Amino acid sequence: MEEGSGQENGTSPEPSQEISSQLRKSSEELLQEIYNLSAQLLLESGSERINLASGLLNLTESLIQLNGSEVLMGVELNGTAWGGVGNVSNPILILHPNATANITFTSRGGGVSTDSENADFGNDAAWILTATFIIFTMQSGFGLLESGAVSMKNETNIMVKNVVDVVLGGFTYWLFGYALSFGKSDWTNPFCGWGDFAINPGEDTMGRVYTTFFFQLSFATTATTIVSGAIAERFNFVAYVIFSAINTIVYCVPAGWIWGSHGFLYRLGVVDIAGSCGVHLCGGASAFVASRMVGPRIGRYDDGEAALPMGSPTNAILGMFMLWWGWLGFNCGSTFGINGDRWKYAARTAVTTLQSSIGGGLAGMSLSWYKNHRLEIGDVVNSVLGALVSITAGCALFTTWEALFIGIVGGLIAVLGMPLFDKLHIDDPVGATSVHGMCGIWAMMAIGLFVQADGLLGLTNGYSGLFRGGGFYLLGVQSLSCLCVMVWSMACTFAILFVIDRFLMPLRMSEWEELVGADFAEHGIRRRNVGVSRAVSVLGLQHNGFDYSDINPQGDNPCHVKVLENLDMLSSRRGSTLSKAVAQVTRNSFKTAFMPSFLIKKMGKEASKQNHSTITEVTPIGNPNSQNGWSDTLSFEKSGEAVFVYVGLDGSVYGINNTVYSRFEVKVR
Predict the structure, then answer these.
(1) What is residue 621's predicted lDDT score, i.e. its pLDDT?
(2) What is the DSSP letter of 555?
(3) Residues in the chain, pLDDT under 70
(4) Is residue 103 within 8 Å of residue 61, measured between CB atoms?
(5) Which of 531, 522, 581, 575 is nearest to 553 (CA)?
């Protein structure tokens, strides 16, 4: 009874608990033995020993766990291993750098995952696709921001360039971009992927492949769009179309280095969750080279390096808000799902992204107020965007305090970097080089300094930053990644633009096109009050064999303009009243409404003969192109003589026929 009561009171362990304890102990001992044997074999030379160790690790794939987590960064061995796998503080397996084994890691961002056996990927795909829909709204944000930063006579042109980036960039990314980033074939190597050109996967793989392709496509178009703002207001539109189509290669190769399982930076352990290096630094480096090659805008630095006034600050702020919104999808979607522990990282990403932008905005507004005693719109916008770039690389890994600090530093870098490039006469109207380039470097360095190795998904590969006791390894890998991406992007951009300029067409607009504006020259849009009328009055309406005189100013109803011109002529005659004049130019009389058409035409011709006014004398006064001016009177004896008059914004006439004047006097008979 005592034994029975003792068992009932739980004084002796249950048989199942004892068996479980023994199994756990046996598993731990087995893993330890495998670890010792594998480490010994891998540290010795000889391919046979290395292959034996690889086989042992493959056999125990299902047994190895980290503190109860199913995350293990070393389950498939078929390539080239590079480092260590295991617990943050106590590695389970150490692989020799020369081992011929491939470690298949879980996703380290970029919207790319190597976990092809996830049965619940449908939920992850819904998350990723939704995030990508949001990311594509960033094209609107870029367009509004860039159009707001340039003069109004170029704002439509910059919006059209954003359309070109999606259309042509999307086509070439489908054609060869994805293949060079994540293609899988025997030709795939640590430098680039190969395979899946003009991607069209089968039913068994299309879900994961299409999801990855769609997400990465949004990254590729963003990288190209960064360049468009830096070369605004002077870059030949057709040359840009060619560049936009080819520029996909500038992004897709580094993307494979960072996020592809074959990439050499990926194997070294680089951490770039959402693209501070792969997207923003890549685009910022290209923007720097493009700005330098095309040169500054005409007269940009004639009177100093001060920033030029924005064409539409309201558009710029609205664009910033759209980018802000899109950035949340950009970063949160890069966790590539919400199943398992990924939703925790997605939640952290949302908070750190917002926290960093708040820090950047505070820094930018404070600095702007300190320098100018007012808030400069450019400083406010770029400080927020610089902070967003700065947090992008480590958005899923930083604490809120770290995110705030990183955003503050990023905002200051963005605002202080723009005047620095102006000192070098690198004309970047939107500050893309400082916002995306310099802040992209800071984002990567921040990971090497502050990040704490995570234990849920192993996104940092078990490494911590320098200030977290992890040493210099991660900081070194992050620095190497920045160097590689910068060199690649700058070299490729230079090569592409050099070939276009040398063999196809000039990179830069002509002086005539730049002065009248890209909207007028490239798209036939002539706005009032933006300087186009003054430009064409001085430069003329013929250029390169084309006649632009048929382009009417935008904003007015041409029918109303015609009516008002006739009204002004009628009301100036003796005996006429305004109401009678309006009646004559706006509606037919009761009689003419019932008359045959040939009688109406005949009456109209007779009336025209009686009331036709003819310009007989034109007296120009003060030719701005001549120091002495003009005082002659030009007479036109013939009734039907055509006189072309160019009217400026203030109502003054600047040109008659091919001669330019500041004012004139007209006599009407």
Answers:
(1) 45
(2) S
(3) 1-120, 528-534, 536-542, 549-565, 567-669
(4) no
(5) 531
Please tell me the distance from the alpha carbon of residue 534 to that of residue 310, in angstroms, as a whole number. 20
Contact 407, 391 (CB under 8 A): yes
Q: Which long-range contacts (CB under 8 A, 24 or more apart) does 372-376 make?
A: 376/307
Residue 11: CB atoms within 10 A of its CB come to 10
What is the rounded CA–CA span in Å between residue 65 and residue 49? 24
Q: Could you give the angle at which helices 155-172 and 206-230 cross, rounded to 10 degrees?
A: 150
The secondary element (H helix, E strand) that includes residue 619 is strand 615-621
pLDDT at 513: 86
Q: Could you tell me which of 180, 178, 163 has the C-alpha nearest to residue 216?
A: 178
CA 112 to each of CA 105, 195, 255, 480: distance values in angstroms, whole numbers, following the listed order: 11, 17, 10, 21
Paired strand residues for 656: 645, 659
Among the listed residues 229, 38, 269, the one whose alpha carbon sits nearest the alpha carbon of residue 141 = 229
Count the alpha carbons within 13 Å of 425 in the hemisphere toward its beta carbon. Answer: 12
Burial class (CB in 10 A: 0-12, 13-18, 19+), 19: exposed
Tracing tokens 């590729």 back to the chain, one arrives at 220
Residue type, 420: L
Query: How far is CA 489 from each of CA 243, 279, 483, 484, 564, rounded to the nearest angstrom?
Result: 13, 11, 10, 9, 57
Q: 124-170 pLDDT, tens per residue?
A: 889 999 999 999 889 999 999 999 998 888 899 999 999 999 999 99
Helix, strand and coil in the chain, % to nearest 5: 60, 5, 35
Q: Which residue intervals of 517-626 are DSSP H helices?
A: 518-523, 532-539, 558-571, 578-586, 597-611
b/e sequence 151-175, b meaning 16+ C-beta within 10 Å = bbbbbbbbbbbbebbbebbbebbbe
Q: What are phi and psi of 236, to 5 degrees?
A: -55, 125
DSSP letters along 341-378, please? THHHHHHHHHHHHHHHHHHHHHHHHHHHHHHHSS--HH
Q: What is the pLDDT of residue 2?
A: 44
Q: Look up residue 152 and give its DSSP letter.
A: G
Interatomic CA distance for residues 579 and 93, integer angstroms: 96
> Quick one: pLDDT at residue 151?
87
> Tokens for 40?
């010994």
Q: Encode pLDDT of 253-290 as tens digits.
A: 999 999 998 999 999 999 999 999 999 999 999 999 99
User: Among the residues of 500-531, which ranges form H helices?
Assistant: 511-516, 518-523
Model pLDDT, residue 96:
37
pTM as predicted:
0.70
Q: C-alpha dihedral over 97, 100, 101, 102, to 10 degrees? A: 80
Q: Which residue has the tokens 């039907």?
A: 640
CA torsion 335-392-288-379 (nearest 10°) is 140
Which residue type occupies 125?
A: A
